[in-house]
Write a structure and sequence with these properties.
Layout: H1 6-9, E1 12-14, E2 17-20, E3 30-32, H2 42-48, E4 50-61, H3 65-80, E5 83-93, E6 98-111
Parallel strand pairs: 3-6
Antiparallel strand pairs: 1-2, 2-3, 4-6, 5-6
Length: 115
């Protein structure tokens, strides 16, 4: 038997738990406490699922690769319906040839308590 790691299945370990892509048809990525997705039938999952939102505020320097990656990730989540931007304030900094962006966004997830 080949053991597949959570990363190979698409899960990412975050500050809130393991995040799984929306392969279960819940409409949002799912957060679990551990590195395995829930093994519930569809009716039990539908009855147990709850929705959570996490808010973030960050000043991004788009000249820094890690900040540009964050900006692109948030943009992709918004395009997929998994996040909303509440504030986006952009300022060109010509002497540094970069943009600074104040970004406040909310990421939406499905979760099942106890999993």
């Amino acid at each position: 038997m080949v053991k597949i790691t959570p990363e190979e299945r698409g899960a990412i370990d975050t500050e809130h738990g393991w995040v799984w892509p929306d392969r279960l048809g819940l409409g949002l990525p799912m957060i679990t406490a551990g590195p395995t997705p829930p093994s519930l039938n569809r009716d039990a999952m539908d009855a147990a699922v709850q929705y959570v939102t996490y808010g973030y505020v960050k000043v991004l320097d788009l000249g820094k690769p890690e900040d540009m990656t964050t900006y692109q990730r948030v943009a992709n989540m918004v395009a997929s319906g998994y996040a909303d931007i509440a504030v986006e304030d952009r300022h060109l900094v010509p002497e540094r040839n970069t943009w600074l962006v104040l970004l406040r966004w909310y990421e939406k997830y499905a979760t099942i308590p106890g999993y």
